[in-house]
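dumping this here before i forget
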Amino acid sequence: MSGVAAGDTGTRRHRLALTTDPVVILLVEDNPGDARLTMEALKEGSFPSRLCIATDGVEALEFLRREGPHAEAPRPGLVLLDLNLPKKDGLQVLREMKTDPELRRIPVVILTTSQAERDVASSYENHANCYVTKPTDLDRYFDVVRTIEKFWVEVAELPVR
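structure:
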């Protein structure tokens, strides 16, 4: 009998919380108020994280690809992506991420104000890992951001890069 447990395919997986470094979260958000709220919610979270912010779709892809001023950017363990962005919208960013072999494994949570069914459908068709509508209530917003962090950092099993 081999040393592989039943149901184990032999692929290595991990939880982001098990790493020794703070989890790098890339927030792609053009609204400074929403960015600030997300930063505050993550500060109060139970996991050490490093929040990086891109304010448009072009900057997000440069950060992810480590181009230009982002040549030394850390690889995020999670991307929180707004859909309504200048220069390149969130769906375009998502499409490019999920077709890039270097980026496709990074979990992407769509965090947006849009409740439009077409946006939800398009996000999942382009391989978003999750779609969350931003709550308008401040306490609820904090709860949602902390829940996203807890799930993707502590609960979800992710492939080792």
